[in-house]
Amino acid sequence: MNFLALFDLSVLDTTVRLATPLLLACLAGLFSERAGIFDIGLEGKMLAAAFFSAALASITGSVWLGIAAGIGASLVLSAVHGLASITFRGNQLISGVAINFLAAGMTVLIAQDWFQQGGRTPSLLTGGRFEPITLPFAEALSTVPVFGPIYAELISGHSILVYIALFCVPGTWYILFRTRFGLRLRAVGENPAAVDTAGVSVVGLRFAAVGICGILCGIAGAYLATALQAGFVKDMTAGRGFIALAALIFAKWRPWHALWATLLFGYLQAIALRPDIIEGALGFKVQVQLLDALPYILTVVILAGFVGKAIPPRAGGEPYVKER
Amino acid sequence: MDVMPKWAEVVLVPLISLILAAILSALVILAIGEDPVAAVKLMVSGALGSTYGWGYTLYYATNFMFTGLAVAVAFHAGLFNIGGEGQAMLGGLGVALVCLFIPWPHWTLAVLGATVGAAAFGALWAAIPAYLQAKRGSHIVITTIMFNFIAAAVLNYMLVNILRPAGSMDPATARFPEAVHLPSLHEMLAPIGINFSKSAPANVSLVLAIIACFVVWLLIWRTSLGLEIRSYGKSGRAARYAGIGSVRITMIAMLISGGLAGMMAINNVMGEAERLVLNAVEGAGFIGIAVALMGRSHPFGVFLAAILFGFLYQGGAELALWTSIPRELIVVIQALVILFTGALDNMVRMPLERIFLAIRQSREAKATKAAE
């Protein structure tokens, strides 16, 4: 048995690449839920962003126009969610479900109309994708023992969006816990009446949070279609929005914990791709289906409060009605 | 006093929501360069123009009645069961085990056994999230979503590793024995002289679904348990004061809900495919959400909404066959229905309430004037 093989550099490298969309979506959900708006529509927003980023990148050949379109599409869905759950005080969960289906249907419908390739975009060529970036000295340092290969293979050589996602972690922490806006945003998720009494707009704050959520989901979707893969295929988010939600609960709505949680789930996805490594390391065969289900099972265990209690923001899911 | 008369609440609000969803759907069809009027004509003739079309429409409607009722019962208890998909998958597993491993002499007995199997497996799959919600306070929406994914993994494992016949590459069970074949509408209607299409999959489960609608209506509006469920759904706190246990109601409502979702498998697994395949549910569990919302969680409303969605499903398949409109149009329509009848309900309701309030105020003003 060789447990170290479970942490093979190539597996860890895949972990980082697979954790990135989860991390972005998880932080997106974090902003929204910290402000008291449940969002089970992360999946749909990512999917819409994946399609529009790939579509624009394929038409214009510019990946930056692509990501802008992806963010725009995600923001439109965010606006729908905000309209339903903030303005019209509807059920946030039902709105999220609607958004997921809307994205699942519309992306294929438009893809078929624009490209006639059975609900996918053409494969993206160079320029239409985010290329891996080699960090400075990666080549030169790769001969240094231990640190060299880690730097060259694991840390260097990802697309810019991976680094942006990682940067978003301290960024989110700073915004939420070190700025006035963040304090108010968290307050609006715990006790909106108090925020309202202080003369700050609950509606405005919640829309801002939902907007940030849209932007981050947009980047996550664009990463899927223009960096992780080369183009959009039907339902390509494959439940990542829900894994991100699971990670968010796992992380108990905290940014740094979100990073660890998404890295863990990314690792589970990465290792599920390499059953040979698991068998070699553990000496027995682990069912692929068990590996696939593991993030979800873990989430249920966490939710059940067997490993520390996950307490969501207090006003989460409830529309705010001003007292009259 | 309610601002709106009852008929407006029950008929007008859903109708306007539906019209809004239809208008947007028509715009979507226009935007992809097709003619909405022609599309509707094609859908009507494809889904309702022949007994073949009706056979498919009613087959889909049967699925949606079960999943719609499942969501509706949970709604009455104030719970949102998003896990109909996973519960229906597990229900399929229950049906397959019952049909494959018990030598049934006749389908009438088999269908009883399959009902028990389907409901038990579906209820079991809802029981765990229900227990976690009731006892440990974990959010039922998230846990039922997670259980959909876990159900997919369980089904995958069972079909690939255990139930797949030796030598078969297809992840599916063996065919069920001939004795458990459920009579199709063709076989049921032929003796009374109606020539129903032979190849349509609608079968005797439709009758079961209609019975289920009636039983759920009885349960919710004519039993004390139903009253308890509804009062718990309206206000958990008030219900607790009245001595209604929250753990008990959450468990019972979710067991019934999961059982109903599981019973869908009688139709699609036993009635149609006659074996269990991987993707047997095909999103019907999620359509149950739209059906329950549109039917205002009332069994009769669910019945009507299920038939409408059955029509949309079959009509959408016809569209995909004859035009360049993909099947996903139905997913869009489904999303719009959920959005307008569920999440944006207040958008329709608020202006209507204002109109009715204005009408009443002017009437009252006239009355006081006349009195003077």
Tell me what the structure shows.
The complex is a heterodimer of chains A (324) and B (372). By secondary structure, chain A is mainly α. Chain A has helices at 9-34, 42-60, 63-87, 92-115, 138-141, 147-155, 160-178, 180-190, 192-197, 202-228, 240-250, 255-272, 275-282, 288-303. Chain A has a single domain (3-123, 144-303), classed as ABC transporter involved in vitamin B12 uptake, BtuC (Orthogonal Bundle). Chain A is 69% helix and 0% strand. Chain B has a domain at 65-310: ABC transporter involved in vitamin B12 uptake, BtuC (Orthogonal Bundle), CATH 1.10.3470. The model of chain B has no long low-confidence stretch (mean pLDDT 91). Chains A and B meet through α3, α4, α11 and α14 of A and α5, α6, α12, α14 and α15 of B.
Main attributes of the structure:
heterodimer, A: mainly alpha, ABC transporter involved in vitamin B12 uptake, BtuC, B: 372 residues, mainly alpha
CATH class of chain A: Mainly Alpha
Overall 3D geometry of chain B?
A: globular
Please state the average pLDDT score of chain A: 88
Radius of gyration of chain A: 20 Å
Approximately how much helix is present in the residues of chain A? 55-70%
Find the structural class of chain A using helix and strand composition.
mainly alpha
Q: Write the CATH architecture name of chain A.
A: Orthogonal Bundle
What spatial form of chain A do the alpha-carbon principal axes imply?
Answer: globular
The CATH topology of the domain at 65-310 in chain B turns out to be ABC transporter involved in vitamin B12 uptake, BtuC
Q: What percentage of the residues of chain A does DSSP assign to strands (E)?
A: under 5%
The fraction of residues assigned to DSSP E strands of chain B is under 5%
Average pLDDT of chain B, to the nearest integer? 91
Number of helices of chain B: 15
Oligomer state equals heterodimer
Helix content of chain B: over 70%
